[in-house]
Amino acid sequence: MQQHKVTFVVCLYNPRSKGRPEHLARALEIMSEYKAKDTIVGIGKDIGRKEEEIILTTIEDLDETLVDMTTIVIVGNKETYVKKWTHDYTSRIYTMMKLLFGGTAESTEILEFLSQQNIPVTTSVVSDYGRHLASKFGQDVVQGRMTADQMVAFIKENDVDEIIDASHPFADIVSRSDESSRSGGIPLCAL
Fold this sequence. Notes:
Elements: E1 10-13, H1 23-32, E2 40-45, E3 53-58, E4 71-75, E5 80-83, E6 87-90, E7 97-101, H2 105-116, E8 121-125, H3 128-134, E9 140-143, H4 148-157, E10 160-165, H5 173-184, E11 188-190
Parallel strand pairs: 7-8, 7-10, 8-9, 10-11
Antiparallel strand pairs: 1-4, 2-3, 2-4, 5-6
Helix pairs in contact: 4-5
């Protein structure tokens, strides 16, 4: 296998312990045959705990003593790069998109986040004011109530891979977004 053909990102969960101190070294040795030594490696220690720590390094510079049973090691590929010095990313070409039912302050925050991450999203709103808020982020906005059938058609025509329902909790759209999600066979995140 040639190095330029290997584009996998590899995630190693719990890759080193007192009983298995050599496993991580062996895994890195094997990967080094196919990946450049300057490939970015992210080390996540104690994720979700107070002691949580994120370390960015390379295959060549990885200090194995930092890795233990509470660690995840993510070895990037040739397209992985560091952004803002806090997280590692692998570039992807997103052909799918999110459908956000909005019109609330929460939906605006979600839209802002998705836009910052360059994730394609179309926001569906009912009111002119909702359209005004959503249009600030340079993503597509559709205005008007959709029936469940119209939602399913929109999902299929636009390659939607996830519905995010951040509409008003008393809006009747919630039941339609759930029905559309099931009909379209895609995940629904309802706030």
